[in-house]
Design brief:
3 strands, 180 residues, Arc Repressor Mutant, subunit A, single chain, mainly alpha, 3-stranded antiparallel sheet, 8 helices
Length: 180
């Protein structure tokens, strides 16, 4: 999936690996995590597949800069992927794994965990609001692109709000158990 995220970004225009990494972390990272090393590895694979082309630009006093451009084949692969809908039922959540095994912890520990979780998701929600303000800048004012980016931000916002509400319900269940 990372390859399609990179191809999608390159569809906006040619970029260096550094620029791809930076934009990825400001936008896609809210719903698809990737380390810098993964992005660079994927760029190599995309180039071997002929889906991107790299051009090296020499710089004075700095390392050479590799500019990546999506190829016709890369655009075709991205378009094919965009046209194939798929239900995403995969959930990999360290949070849920921890909660699943929390039965042996004290109610105090569990409550503290959920309160910390709420705080973290509230903070992430605030960061998402900052990302919302930069949409038009990254989409060069293209309203259709901006609308699609906004849809993913709306999902992220609702997802984080869900975690905040769910954490509160868990705290209430723990408190109810204590009062019985």
């Amino acid at each position: 999936m990372l390859k399609y995220g990179i191809l999608g970004l390159l569809r906006y225009g040619s970029m260096s690996g550094y620029e791809i990494d930076h934009i990825f972390k400001q936008s896609l990272n809210y719903f698809w995590n990737a380390q810098t090393s993964q992005i660079y590895r994927e760029l190599s694979t995309l180039e071997k597949n002929g889906w991107i082309r790299r051009q090296t630009i020499e710089q004075n006093g700095r390392p050479d800069k590799n500019i990546c451009t999506i190829t016709k084949e890369g655009k075709a692969q991205l378009e094919q992927w965009l046209q194939s809908p798929a239900i995403d039922m995969s959930v990999r959540s360290a949070t849920l794994m921890k909660v699943f095994f929390m039965g042996q912890q004290s109610n105090e520990q569990k409550t503290a965990y959920f309160k910390t979780l709420q705080d973290q998701y509230r903070h992430a929600l605030e960061n998402l609001e900052h990302a919302s303000q930069s949409i038009l800048r990254h989409t060069d004012g293209n309203e259709q692109e901006a609308r699609c980016w906004q849809m993913t931000l709306d999902f992220g916002r609702q997802y984080m709000q869900l975690y905040i509400r769910w954490s509160q319900q868990c705290i209430e269940q723990i408190q109810k158990e204590e009062n019985q």
